[in-house]
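TODO from last week: model Plasma membrane-associated cation-binding protein 1.
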Amino acid sequence: MVNYWKAKVLPTIKKVFDTNGKKAAAAEASKSFDQSKEDISKEFEEKKGELQPKVVEIYEASAVEIKTLVKEPTKQGLKKKSTGVVSFIEELVKIEFPGSKPVSEAASKYGAGLVSDPVIFIFEKVTTLLPAEEPPAPAEPAAAVETEDKEITPEAAEEIKKEAAEKEAAATPAAEAPPPPPAADPAPAAEPAAEPAKA
């Protein structure tokens, strides 16, 4: 019975809990990917035109967290959202995105956090195909119209601030003034004595 445990069960348990072996295998996968980056980049440049609409479609269908990771990938984020990252990369494999197949295999086998460099490389390529973000619309268009009429100088900026403060003061009705303090009680309530410090 002891020999069976030593021969069959113990090696299986070691494989399950052996993270160093997993890290070494992930490092080897990353190294082999690094060697093929030039070929992947060339293939990417050739297929760029046909890949863009497909990549945009996959990107738009993704969760917000994955979109954020694609735009700004971090190793910590890849570890936390590993399953979402793997599914995103699997979608890229379906459209034959260059380099996505080995990255997908490595990420699903070892986790996206352990093969973060190849995943980040793929995400950088995906980002180049995405349309540029539109600048956010101005929050207060009326204020923007007023400032367009005046030349922006330090004096003009100060004047705009004063006008805005005056408008706020005028908009605040007198009814919102703080209520008067309550009348003082003739007999103040006795405060309980503080407990002595315990040593």
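Done. Confidence is low (pLDDT under 50) at residues 134-150.
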